[in-house]
Amino acid sequence: MDQDGHGATTRVPGEFVHRADPADIIPTGWTQLRADRYSVSAHWPAAHPFFSPVAGDRHDPVLVAETIRQATMLVAHAELGVPVEDQFVMWGLHYTADPDELAVDGLSSDIHLDLVCTELGTRGGRLGNLRTTVVLTRDGRHLATGGALARATSLQAYRRIRGERMAALGRPVPLIPGVEPHLVGREHDKDVVLAPGIRPGQWRLRVNTGHPTLFRRPNDHIPGMLLLEAARQAAAATLGAGAYLPAGMDVSFARYAELDSPCWIEAETVPTADPSVDTVRVEGRQDDRSVFVATLTSAARPLAVAAGHHAGRLAG
C-alpha cells in the first residue's frame, strides 16, 4: 500500500533494494494501484561512478536493467511481505529500450515505472517466485519495457541449499589482470570484469570483490549484476564497439556462479534478418556447465569498425 494512504511516496530504504550507498538507490517511491500493480518513481543520476553515460550523451542502458531489478525487489519487500533478510536472487531479466529516449541532456532524470506482478508463487505461506513486467516512461514518453523473474529464499533455507559454499562468504578472491578498458567500453581498469581467455571470443571473468557497485556486500557467490556486466563487456569487445549501447538485453541464469572456480565468458555474433541490428549471444560457463546465457542487441555498426574482437591484451 502507499505510505500514507493518499498516494504519496517517501524515501526508499536501502535494504528494500539491497543497496547501502544512497547514490546507488534508484527508486524514490512507490504506490500500490491495485492488488498486482504498482507505480514506482525513480531517478537516474546524471553522473555515477559506474553507470556513466555511453557515447557521451546517452544514459547507460544497463540502468534500465538495474532499475527493473531494484523496483522488483522494492515491491517484494515493501508490499509482498518478503523479509529484508531473505536471499533474493534474479533468475531472469530482460529489457528493450529506445536509444533516442536515453539522451542525458534535454529530458528529466525522473523515471516512472508501471510494474505488474504477473506471477506470484508461494511456498509455505511465503512468497517464493515472482515475475514482473515493467514499462518505463520519461517525461510521459515511452522509454523501455522489460521484466524480471526472481526467487526469495529464507536465510535458513538458503544456508541449507548452499551448504559448505557459505564458507566462501567474504573470502578474498585474487584480482587477475583485465583486458584494456577501452576494448570493453570502460574508462577505468577497476570497472573491467573480463580477463584474457585462451582463444578468440573467450574471456575469463574478473572478480573484484572490492568493487563498490558490483559487490555491494560480502557474498558467497558472484552477483548477477556482475555477470550481466560481463555480458555487456563481452558484446562490446566482440563488435569492436567501445561506445557500446545495448538497447536490448535478455539474460537467464541457470545456477549460482561460484567464487572459487574460473568462470569463462564466451561470445559470438548471431545472424539476423534485420541488417540494422547487431545481435550477440554471450554464455558464462563454469566447471563445464552453463551459468547464464544472454542475448544483447544494438544498432548495427559499420563493418570497418567491427574488427579485432578477441581483446586479448592486458590492461596496463
UniProtKB/TrEMBL annotation:
Where does the A-factor biosynthesis hotdog domain lie?
Answer: 16-149, 183-298
Q: What is this protein called?
A: ScbA/BarX family gamma-butyrolactone biosynthesis protein
* Originating species: Streptomyces wedmorensis
Where does the signal peptide begin and end?
Answer: none
Xref: Pfam families: AfsA
- Which InterPro entries does UniProt cross-reference here? AfsA-like (IPR047757), AfsA_hotdog_dom (IPR005509), HotDog_dom_sf (IPR029069)
